[in-house]
Design goal:
2 copies of one chain form a homodimer. Chain A has about 230 residues and is an alpha+beta fold. Chain A is about 35% helix and about 20% strand. Chain A is built from 7 helices and 11 strands. In chain A, the strands form 3 sheets. A 4-stranded antiparallel sheet of chain A has the order 1-8-3-6. A 4-stranded antiparallel sheet of chain A has the order 2-7-4-5. Chain A has a 3-stranded antiparallel sheet with strand order 9-11-10. In chain A, a hairpin with a 5-residue loop joins strand 4 and strand 5. In chain A, helix 4 crosses helix 7 and helix 5 packs across helix 6. The first copy, chain A, is globular, with a radius of gyration of 18 Å. Chains A and B meet through helix 3 of A and helix 3 of B. The structure holds a DNA duplex (30 and 30 nucleotides).
Chain lengths: ~230, ~230
DNA sequence: CGACCATTTGATATGGATCAAGCGATGTGG
DNA sequence: CCACATCGCTTGATCCATATCAAATGGTCG
């Protein structure tokens, strides 16, 4: 059982309301893996785990969003992936995390003991298969991301918007659950460049910025032409 | 059994001597997976498989070198990975290859039926584990590659040289089994930039270019300072 | 209302791309 | 065996996309 009290640093940013981790009811989650999970809250900017920490837990996003990233020697953060509701992350093969993870907005996560999952996978081959699929998806995502990084700034931003739209229920509206900084770190650009491209996409009529985080895709066709 | 005769396109480049695939004796290879393999020769530049082709075979490099890549819409090739002697590649989860693969120099490969390997994995859990490890390594490699692509040209080239040195037996000498074009496509740079950086590394005394493909690392320390 | 961030916008600098030419090795045909 | 064609690589000159530096704007919360 999972009974210990875990406290996580909640971001130092003044903006981050200090949300102490509390257990909440698991809702809308099924499957043998999720059954073992303990739900926790993480405030915006809160570190979930750091590079080099032991891979004791695997996480599932119940609500909110998480990014995994690596801190480069020059201080930049390279974001590897964003995880949205329903996504599982933190399942790395080695004994310690090769990336850090933090909540990009206030988020509710299911924490599951890695050892329990692995034990379960040994008894239940469908679980083993599920884990395998998670890794495979992760690799695919990394490969797509790799391609992104050799494109132009406009192409990167457009790809990102289309990717987010595809992963979000509402067809042509996206609520970006991360800051421009997070996006820039994902795309290997500066926040200024991201901002400029977004502005320019709006001028061209391809998108509308309802607010900076709520974007409406006006013309998929126009965007698709720009994404590569 | 694997008895059909397979012919592969050997590069159109005049430089590529036309080496017809022939079966050769498997040497220095053990393990249940390798036992099932049929050795084949591929000439420099020969395509091993193309994006979208069915993932019928898994390959092991006996000698030579292979790269996997994706063709971008603007005609560039983004190289995802290089595979050297001993490396296994082509094992993708979906039914078709998401990347293309070609020999960067004349190479000898072991071709194994994917279905046979999967069947074997179901009977032999150690094989399943081995496959798992291959995927995990692949993901790690992709993540490192991702980081590479947000660095400066010099850092990328230095990282590449150090990576190759680490994967090569001879401690401080590397025989690059690929062209500048392959390297540039891997690093997301132009051949001119790669060439300039290499030249500059030689001027600084960090390396010596015996020939353009045979490089001696003079000062690991100096290189390590530059790799990030 | 006022402070604080996040984001946008503007001006300038620069690293790497592009365009172009030269060089050196390797193989070919006379 | 040598002249030549070819290809891979290097070197040079210029241009441009994006970074950097700087400042204005806007949204949110106390």
């Amino acid at each position: 059982m999972f009974t210990e009290t875990i406290r996580r640093n909640v971001s130092q940013q003044p903006a981050a309301r200090v949300v102490q981790p509390v257990k909440v009811k698991p809702v809308g989650l099924d499957g043998p893996i999720e059954k073992m999970g303990a739900p926790m809250q993480f405030g915006r900017g809160a570190e979930i785990y750091g590079e080099g920490e032991p891979t004791d837990y695997v996480y599932k996003v119940v609500s909110g969003a998480v990014c995994t990233y690596r801190v480069l020697t020059d201080g930049r953060n390279q974001v590897e992936s964003f995880y949205l509701a329903g996504d599982i992350f933190g399942f790395e093969l080695g004994g310690e995390h090769s990336l850090s993870a933090e909540a990009t907005i206030n988020s509710k996560l299911l924490m599951m003991r890695r050892s329990a999952i692995i034990a379960l996978a040994e008894r239940d081959s469908s679980v083993a298969r599920q884990l395998w699929m998670i890794s495979a998806k992760e690799l695919q995502r990394a490969q797509e991301h790799l391609i992104l990084l050799v494109k132009t700034a406009q192409e990167r931003v457009v790809c990102f918007l289309l990717e987010m739209a595809a992963r979000t229920p509402g067809a042509n509206e996206i609520d970006l659950p991360m800051s421009r900084r997070n996006i820039a770190d994902y795309l290997g650009l500066t926040i200024e460049t991201v901002s400029r491209v977004v502005t320019q996409l709006e001028s061209s009529g391809a998108i509308v910025l309802d607010t900076s985080r709520h974007i409406i895709l006006r013309s998929r066709k126009a965007l698709s032409c720009m994404n590569s």
